């Protein structure tokens, strides 16, 4: 079952016709995903539970611990393809828009990018792998610190974090004066790359790619690292912490984001037939066995 998503432009399918595409390009960034509370709806309950658990446990110390653990890259070795295949078994518990396995979403995203940017093969590959950090879920991590939207720790929670007006009430950092002010542990306008983000699949995959010396362009790495930072790229929070240079990063993330969001109700791609093309891209940009 594929759930329809609520958008700020009504129910226009942006891929249907030129008008839809135009609306998406114009208003795509202010689109709202449906996080409303509905105890009758098991998907909505699941999404809400995931975020409440995430927001209760994600503290500065928690993120430091996860970085310590995962940034040794000594958990497993795998090619990109084999890691992607594992996503067959992962349904993202934070996602209100789809309950298909993540591998389907990976190919839907990549193929739609390929249609619009046939020449930019690195962008196709970025679409395919952007959620691959979710493999942490197969190595002992609960989904709440793998999936979902991200936000910085160490400063006041942004006003547009989903459920954030209530979900942080049991988080110790909410009451820690070192971390609960507007700037918290940061300097004004320190820049997005200085922020310690909540632990999840974005930061992890970004680090894996850098560690394994992928030759993907910087733009791709930014798309991967910040695609879940909705409170910033969609909500407009944290302006006091970012710089001019971060606008370039935001442009990249927004360019990618439409494909992440608006492809989830598209048809299911023929994954077997598509592998040879994507394997050639993997060989070009991130070949061989990687350390994870
Ligand atoms: O539910 C989704 C999903 O977990 C995505 O992979 C993530 O990038 C989004 O930020 C989130 O809203
Ligand atoms: Fe993601
Ligand atoms: Fe995604």
From TrEMBL:
Cofactor note: Binds 2 iron ions per subunit.
Keywords: Cytoplasm, Iron, Metal-binding, Oxidoreductase
Protein EC: 1.13.99.1
Subcellular localization(s) per the UniProt record: Cytoplasm
Reaction(s) catalysed (UniProt annotation): myo-inositol + O2 = D-glucuronate + H2O + H(+)
GO CC terms, sorted: cytoplasm
A Pfam family matched in the record: MIOX
Organism: Papilio xuthus (Asian swallowtail butterfly)
Annotated positions binding Fe cation: 105, 130-131, 201, 227, 260
Protein known as: Inositol oxygenase
Binding of substrate, residues: 33, 92-94, 134, 148-149, 227-228
GO MF term list: inositol oxygenase activity; iron ion binding
Stated family: Belongs to the myo-inositol oxygenase family.
Pathway terms, separated by semicolons: Polyol metabolism; myo-inositol degradation into D-glucuronate; D-glucuronate from myo-inositol: step 1/1
Main location: cytoplasm
